[in-house]
Design goal:
This protein has 147 residues and is an all-alpha fold. It has five helices and no strands.
Length: 147
């Protein structure tokens, strides 16, 4: 890593400490979206912002070494397929697309929402990876000045 990659040492240090807390908070929002405000979309945005924080603080080269961008792209692509699979399982088991085919469980428990929790996880992956990959592509694009 070159000395001028990314931002200052202070920003890099704060990012190194805070990125894990931001990721954990995003996962919390995804997993508790059926019990409190939040869900897959909000948690996915938070996870994307954690990765974007690393990209801005350390630069593109460090981020490509730290994250496997190809795996993130594959994960983003697979999440759409998983969403469709859950929808088709709803048709085959429950009689309608995305019908709840998992028992509801106990009220206010983490596993109490049937298919909503797996759908929140899939949507969180889709949104998080999509938003970060868009920022990744835009960070690598070259702009033409003067036009």
């Amino acid at each position: 890593m070159q000395q001028n990659d990314g931002m200052t040492l202070i920003v890099k240090t704060v990012t190194r400490i805070s990125v894990w807390m931001i990721l954990l908070y995003g996962i919390y929002i995804i997993f508790h979206g059926h019990l409190s405000p939040g869900g897959g979309f909000a948690g996915g945005v938070i996870i994307a912002l954690a990765f974007l924080n690393v990209l801005l603080a350390y630069g593109r080269k460090f981020t490509s070494d730290w994250l496997n961008i190809g795996f993130l792209h594959d994960l983003e692509s697979a999440s759409a397929t998983l969403f469709l699979v859950l929808g088709i399982l709803g048709i085959s088991i429950g009689g309608a697309f995305l019908a709840n085919f998992i028992t509801k469980g106990e009220l206010f428990a983490l596993l109490s929402a049937g298919t909503i929790l797996p759908l929140n996880i899939i949507i969180g992956i889709k949104v998080g990876m999509s938003l970060f990959l868009v920022a990744w592509v835009l960070a690598g694009s070259k702009t033409v000045k003067g036009e």
